[in-house]
Design goal:
954 residues; alpha/beta; Rossmann fold; 4 domains; 8-stranded mixed β-sheet; 7-stranded mixed β-sheet; 28 helices; elongated; transmembrane helix; membrane
């Protein structure tokens, strides 16, 4: 600053700015004038220096155009002209100022109303008839309609140059951003791909933007704009709403639109009438916009970041340019509203016009106006002390000066006379420019665009990492959520498989690698059929259904891609579901649970089933878990803790019903199977000799398999009882899904004692390599050898039934099977139902010896599902899972696919009798074809024991 007055006034401004950082001090209209008229130009230069200094300090400032304008406008219209352009953010400094530019939506709305009111098209539409008359009311409605049409054409904003249209479009689109985010988040809840959610959000924003800019229509969500809310709720405009109520409800768009329309027309009429109202409305809108721009509690904390108040500079105010009227309007609005706003006004005035700011229009002095008594004018910085004293006294008298009785006073004006000696230019070395503390606020550092970008980058990184982890862990995952009922686990031989319970939209068939052949297609078809049936149950029969979970091997491994067991069992479950839902009042809903290839992840599946059952009380029990593994006791224990009974069709474990009261199985136990095979072994031994026998078992040290070890145990005990001389038992390893049998075959066939009977405790997939090895080894190829094995061989498809398996020429295979289908076929509707509901069956293919039914897997899972359903719907009423558990011990069903399912004699922690069982023989015919035949059998429900005569091998 080049003068002493400039230095002191600048210091006083910076003192006010420093106070503004800590609170909301009242901001006066500082009017500078010289004590001597000859120094008026120096005052103007001082105002220019103050403006340049504040701009260098980063203050948001505007310089109103006070130069004389052509025309004969009255002072009030000239004052409005000074304010009209202040709604342009570019008038308030450049980008070097603190934080982002201002926005003036309220001032823009007032200007839009002014322009629509002054539009030439409106001149002939204003009502001429008196208000309250029928003609007056009709004319008023027509005028309001036309005014709204003009406002809609302007987008309810002031007319702007073409170069500003793009910015206006962006401002309109900003209000749709939350809608787009909401649309994207809603899409995410359906767990689609991330780009689908992004496209949903962007598409919603584009749609709203297009609808918002339909020509001739008001913008969408007009009543939600902040300027519209102010326009409808400010008490300043209540005087304009003379004829119609303008109550508004933000959640009622029709009523809100009517309120906006009525308020807009009333304000437009008031502005057309002129007087002080338009000017004061402009001033009020400017104050409200600035107050909102410095609101500390805003979402972006802009009030804490803008630490310097805005400053409006008026270089030379007078009557002719409307400056005096503007200052009067500022004081009047502030006194009427009694609210603090951040605008600091610095004006220069000619010394001859200074009295106009202290007196009324008639030039009389205001009554009892307190006059400040300045301190002594001696000593250094005398103006500095006077300025502080004047400000303190002005702030102290502010409350009294706003009283209505002081009609001639301008309480918000702080007039500062500047003596000539203070306006003398100093030496350049004595120039000073004081600045208040400008340390960046904590809010600007912490809550800034840079911090937001950093947080968003970290959040995006964490989101991507989290999403990748979700996609690696769960079968169905979106950007933020996942179906946690199913998981991805490592599959044998490499890759992953989806395990768990498919309570949502997961399809296990979609995760099969390479399609898994024909069985994979069958599995996918069955899944869709089950889900369609479930959807119908939920839609048409809410409250009258029970939920059964089927847990089976619904995925395959690279080393053994077969899905025979899972696909056949699921066919039986689906068939039972269709029959029940078509013929019974209580419907059944089936959820599928995958235990992985060979049920290798059945422990994970059991945990998922138990967790889901805790959320869904309609789950009454589980069907499946048909493979005896090392984890079977833990699985049964977990389901027992969840209160879920298990009805298995094919798990032949002897120990499970003895240890767990919730275990029910239709499969003959391993011990019973070995006893039945003992009838064959007795005939093979003969009367007078003690032939050698051998137990060949699969090595289970590195696998979960428990079935083969149980078979080896009971098979060895049976051979001992039948008088065979047992050779040392042998175990073979399985590497990459293939059994290593060559060395064992050489040792067996080339040894000193070649066994005539081999009890094979292995899996069906190992029997082919065993037959191949024994069929070519010297010592075995030309010797009659009998192989006894358990029920897993019932899954084999021998050549005589169109399968791929067979036996060596001089080897006879005897195996147990779990389902006697031939005797039960005449008394069941199972095959009739299968022909009706299984779409892949052709005419005549639904027979007990057809390839799809010969193994008994479909029949057993069907019967198990029907038994569990019967217990869950006793009395034709949906039962709880606890009641289902109890009711299972009273189940007795005739006419099932395997005979009569009878649990009435099943003791707690003990074996029951009456399982279906078959002893079958497979041997090579002279034509070179393997032929399977039944030696003896018992359908389910028949407790008569088998005997040697009935099971004769002759």
């Amino acid at each position: 600053m080049s003068t002493g007055a400039g230095i002191d006034v600048q210091r006083q401004l910076e003192s006010l700015i420093q106070d503004f950082r800590a609170g909301d001090p009242p901001m006066p209209v500082i009017v500078l004038h010289a004590e001597d008229a000859a120094d008026d130009d120096r005052v103007t230069e001082l105002v220019d220096e103050l403006s340049e200094g504040q701009q260098r300090h980063g203050t948001r400032l505007a310089v109103a155009p006070t130069e004389p304008q052509p025309g004969s406008l009255d002072p009030t219209a000239q004052a409005v002209r000074l304010l009209r352009d202040l709604g342009d953010p570019r008038k308030w400094g450049d980008r070097s100022a603190t934080y982002r530019p201002y926005s003036f939506p309220r001032l823009g709305l007032v200007r839009a109303l002014q322009e629509a009111t002054d539009d030439p098209e409106m001149r002939e539409h204003w009502p001429t008839a008196p208000a309250g008359t029928p003609d007056g009311n009709a004319q008023r409605e027509q005028a309001q309609t036309h005014l709204l049409r003009i406002l809609a054409r302007q987008r309810w904003r002031p007319r702007r140059p073409p170069r500003r249209n793009r910015q206006v479009l962006l401002n309109d689109v900003q209000q749709f951003l939350p809608m787009g985010v909401l649309g994207a988040f809603t899409a995410l809840l359906t767990r689609p791909e991330w780009y689908v959610a992004v496209l949903a959000g962007i598409g919603l924003m584009i749609l709203l933007a297009l609808l918002n800019h339909v020509p001739g229509r008001a913008p969408l969500f007009l009543w939600l704009r902040r300027e519209s809310r102010w326009f409808l709720t400010t008490t300043f405009l209540q005087s304009a709403a003379r004829r119609q109520s303008t109550s508004v409800r933000l959640l009622r768009p029709v009523r809100s639109w009517r309120a906006i329309a009525a308020r807009a027309y009333d304000v437009s009429e008031a502005m057309r009438e002129g007087g002080p109202f338009p000017l004061q409305l402009y001033v009020l809108a400017l104050f409200e916009d600035l107050r909102d721009s410095h609101r500390r509690g805003s979402w972006d904390l802009r009030g804490l970041k803008r630490t310097r108040p805005p400053v409006l500079f008026l270089r030379r105010v007078g009557r002719e340019n409307g400056g005096i009227e503007l200052i009067r309007a500022v004081s009047d609005v502030r006194s009427r509203r009694s609210e603090l706003d951040p605008l600091l006004i610095v004006a220069g005035v000619a010394s001859g016009d200074a009295a106009l700011l202290d007196r009324g229009p008639d030039g009389t002095a205001p009554m009892n106006r307190p006059q400040p008594q300045p301190p002594s004018r001696t000593g250094p910085s005398r103006l500095q002390h006077r300025l502080r004293h004047w400000y303190d006294e002005w702030a102290g008298n502010l409350r009294a000066d706003q009283s209505p009785s002081r009609t001639n006073a301008l309480p918000w004006v702080l007039r500062i006379p500047l003596p000539r000696d203070e306006l003398v230019q100093l030496r350049q070395t004595d120039w000073r420019c004081v600045r208040a503390g400008h340390r960046p606020s904590v809010a600007r550092v912490v809550w800034s665009a840079h911090s937001l970008i950093l947080v968003l980058a970290l959040a995006a990184t964490a989101g991507v990492v989290h999403a990748r982890e979700l996609h690696r862990t769960y079968c169905s995952a979106g950007l933020l959520t996942a179906d946690r009922d199913t998981e991805l686990r490592r599959a044998p031989g490499g890759g992953t498989e989806c395990v768990g319970i498919a309570a949502g939209d997961v399809r296990f068939g979609a995760h099969l690698s390479g399609g898994a052949g024909e069985e994979g297609g069958r599995l996918r078809e069955l899944e869709e059929l089950v889900h369609a049936e479930n959807a119908e149950v939920l839609r048409d029969h809410p409250g009258t259904y029970v939920t059964v979970v089927y847990a089976g091997p619904l995925s395959s491994a690279a080393v053994d891609p077969s899905l025979v067991k899972g696909a056949e069992e699921l066919a039986g479950v689906y068939l039972a579901q269709r029959v029940v839902n078509e013929n019974y009042r209580v419907k059944v809903r089936v959820l599928l649970a995958n235990g992985g290839a060979d049920m290798g992840h059945q422990r994970v599946t059991a945990d998922a089933i138990a967790a889901y059952a805790d959320r869904d009380p309609t789950v009454v029990g589980v069907v499946g878990f048909g493979r005896d593994l090392q984890s079977s006791p833990d699985v049964t224990r977990r389901l027992h803790a969840a209160g879920l009974p298990v009805v298995s069709g094919t798990n032949s474990a002897t120990y499970l019903p003895k240890e767990f009261s919730n275990w029910f199985s239709l499969a003959a136990p391993d011990e019973h199977q070995a006893e039945a095979l003992g009838l064959v072994a007795r005939q093979l031994r003969g009367r007078d000799r003690a032939p050698h026998a051998l137990v060949l078992a699969r090595d289970t040290k590195e696998s979960q398999d428990r079935y083969t070890s149980e078979q080896a145990l009971y098979g060895g005990e049976m051979l001992k009882r039948e008088g065979f001389r047992l050779l040392p038992a042998r175990t073979y390893r399985v590497a990459n899904g293939k059994p290593e049998l060559r060395l064992h075959a050489e040792s067996i066939c080339r040894g000193e004692n070649v066994p005539s009977v081999i009890y094979f405790a292995g899996r069906v997939e190992d029997i082919g390599p065993l037959m191949t090895q024994l069929g070519v080894e010297p010592g075995c190829a030309n010797r009659e050898i009998s192989i006894l094995t358990g029920d897993d061989l019932s899954k084999a498809k021998f050549s005589g039934t169109g399968g791929r398996d067979g036996v060596a020429p001089r080897i006879t295979l005897y195996h147990a099977a779990l389902a006697e289908l031939r005797e039960a076929a005449s008394g069941t509707a199972f095959y009739q139902d299968a022909a009706e509901h299984l779409p892949w069956l052709k005419d005549g293919e639904a027979t007990y010896d057809a390839a799809d039914f010969a193994s008994g897997q479909t029949a057993l899972s069907h019967d198990a599902t029907r038994a569990l359903y019967w217990a869950a719907s006793l009395g034709d009423v949906p039962q709880s899972r606890a009641a289902t558990w109890i009711n299972l011990r009273s189940v007795k069903l005739d006419g099932m696919a395997t005979g009569t399912i009878d649990f009435t004699d099943a003791p707690l922690y003990g074996e029951r009798h009456g399982h279906s069982i078959v002893l079958a023989r497979v041997r090579r015919t002279p034509e070179g074809v393997s032929k399977a035949e039944v030696l003896c059998s018992r359908p389910a429900g028949d407790t008569t024991p088998l005997d040697v005569k009935e099971c004769s091998i002759k």
